[in-house]
Amino acid sequence: KAMERDLRVAIQNNELEMYYQPLIETHGRAMQGVEALVRWNRPGFGMVPPGDFIPLAEETGLIIPLGDWILRTSCRQATEWPNLFVAVNLSPTQFKQQDLIGLVKQVLHDTGLTPNRLELEITEGVLLEQTAYSLMTLRGLQELGVRIAMDDFGTGYSSLSYLQMFAFDKIKLDQSFVQELGKSSGATSIVRTVLDLGRSLGMVTTAEGVETASQRDYLTQQGCNQMQGYLFSRPVPAAEIKNLLLRTY
Ligand code: G
Ligand code: G
Ligand code: MN
Ligand code: NA
């Protein structure tokens, strides 16, 4: 397929770029970290969203070199923002790749990023099979000093049992619940309950997809630790993060 060929070339030719979206600490309303989100400026096509090419990269195995590039680039760029952490998404194939722990260790060493400034985001789909192996991998990453976030929390099938089994450092409440706040009492209860649950398990809670001041205010009132969404900032190129650091939210 043409897209597969082009993606292969793109990884070699630097057509990919990392964008970063601020994560805001609720009380101080200051940027505490960023989520790294990959973009592909495909010649002749313009910006291709990751939802279109990450699945292709997963199917073709290109996710391994692509994921390596994403992790390295994100860690290197994060060293320019001394007080921020960087959160990098790991796809299922990346999570299961040979010696992921060795790769993360090597990238931290090569870039000089302190381990406690790296967060890895995984979805529960990653954990569905090979539970023993997944547990070992998660523990090994945490032993490096890296934090693990459960992404898109609430959208999968077995979220609660995974929370019991795996000691995540953070849960990221999926944006679908945040966007229903104030519209459906069910979603409002779910948000409150997930935040309580995260807190009682000693996990940091983050809400994604915050778009309105009333969503922000409800999440603040419910003790959500961090927020992310268009209300604060869209994902931006690396060069723009320094300007956003001076802003209040
Ligand atoms: O950036 P955007 O909101 O369009 O991302 C769409 C989807 O692509 C999300 O599910 C996101 O997790 C995924 N995605 C974005 N960037 C990366 C990345 O660097 N690595 C992986 N594995 N997935 C990513
Ligand atoms: O699946 P994951 O959570 O990794 O991906 C985050 C996705 O959510 C990215 O595609 C990002 O661009 C998108 N996103 C971030 N903030 C908002 C928001 O406020 N509203 C919406 N609709 N999408 C958002
Ligand atoms: Mn994510
Ligand atoms: Na998410």
Q: Overall mean pLDDT score? A: 93
- As residue ranges, the low-confidence spans are none
Oligomer: single chain
List the helices and strands in order. Answer: HEEEHHEHHEHEHEHHEHEEH
Q: Share of helix among residues?
A: 40-55%
Which sheet architecture does the biggest sheet show? 8 strands, mixed, barrel
CATH architecture: Alpha-Beta Barrel
Percentage of residues in strands: 15-25%
Assign the CATH class.
Alpha Beta
Task: Specify the number of helices.
Answer: 11
Number of strands: 10
> Which descriptor suits the 3D outline?
globular
Spatial gap, N to C terminus: 44 Å
Domain EAL: 1-249
Protein name: PAS domain S-box-containing protein/diguanylate cyclase (GGDEF) domain-containing protein
Describe this structure in a few short sentences.
This protein is an alpha/beta fold and 249 residues long. Helix content is 47%, strand content 22%. It has an eight-stranded mixed beta barrel with strand order 1-2-4-5-6-7-8-9, surrounded by five helices.
Question: What does this entry look like structurally?
Answer:
By secondary structure, the chain is an alpha/beta fold. The protein has a single domain (2-245), classed as EAL domain (TIM Barrel). Helix content is 47%, strand content 22%. The chain has helices spanning 2-13, 50-60, 63-78, 92-96, 100-111, 131-144, 159-165, 175-180, 185-200, 213-221, 238-245; strands at residues 16-25, 30-42, 46-48, 85-89, 118-122, 147-153, 170-173, 204-207, 226-227, 236-237. A hairpin with a 4-residue loop joins strand 1 (16-25) and strand 2 (30-42). Helix 3 (63-78) packs parallel to helix 5 and helix 5 (100-111) packs parallel to helix 6. It is globular and about 50 Å long. The chain starts with a helix and ends with a helix. Bound molecules: guanosine-5'-monophosphate (2 copies), manganese (II) ion (MN) and sodium ion. Residues 35, 89, 121, 151 line the site of manganese (II) ion. Manganese (II) ion binds next to loops.
